[in-house]
Amino acid sequence: HNWQSELAKFCPELKVLPYFGSAEERKKLGRFLDPKNMYNPQMQIHVLITSYNLIVNNVKDQAKLMKIKWNYMILDEAQAIKNNASRRWKVLLGFNTRNRLLLTGTPIQNSMAELWALLHFIMPKLFDNHEQFQEWFSKDIEASSMNQGELNKH
């Protein structure tokens, strides 16, 4: 609900669909997601807000949302998808999106595998191979952290 109030405050012209509630309530909201209504000015939405749990745990909702070609997928608390073996990561990666943005307040203190999972999620063509990513970046990062540790001693 915080995102809904922020959008109302800073972008009042955007039509926001909060996709929450009971299965019956979501079924009623589903009419806004019907391809026949996507470009109807009275039915058109600009932003859909939902939760990780709803998308991952509700197969019907997941299927309905995955049929849409999204312009953007913005994930808040993106550390929730840092494990590329998780069902959440795999489901969200399966969405048809033109652009992806990850938001997090958590500093990057991740392992190389977690960092790769986040980068692959937003740029799958560039970061398509974990082993190659590890080879390219781990030596420089490890060397940098060792040098920083030496500097901190002095």
Weakly predicted, low-confidence segments: none
Q: Strand content of the residues, in percent?
A: 5-15%
Q: How large is the count of helical segments?
A: 7
Q: Which word captures the global form?
A: elongated
Overall strand count: 4
Mean pLDDT: 83
Task: Give, in order, the helices and strands.
Answer: HEHEHHEHEHH
Largest sheet: 2 strands, parallel
* Sheet with the most strands: spatial strand order: 1-2
How does this structure look, described?
Helix 6 crosses helix 7. Strands 1-2 form a two-stranded parallel sheet. Strands 3-4 form a two-stranded parallel sheet. It starts with a helix and ends with a helix. The chain is built from 7 helices and 4 strands. Helices cover 47% and strands 12% of the residues. The protein is elongated and about 55 Å long.
Tell me briefly what this model is.
By secondary structure, the protein is α/β, with parallel strands linked by helices. It has helices at 2-10, 23-29, 52-57, 59-66, 87-93, 112-122, 130-153; strands at residues 16-18, 47-49, 70-75, 97-102. It contains 7 helices and 4 strands.
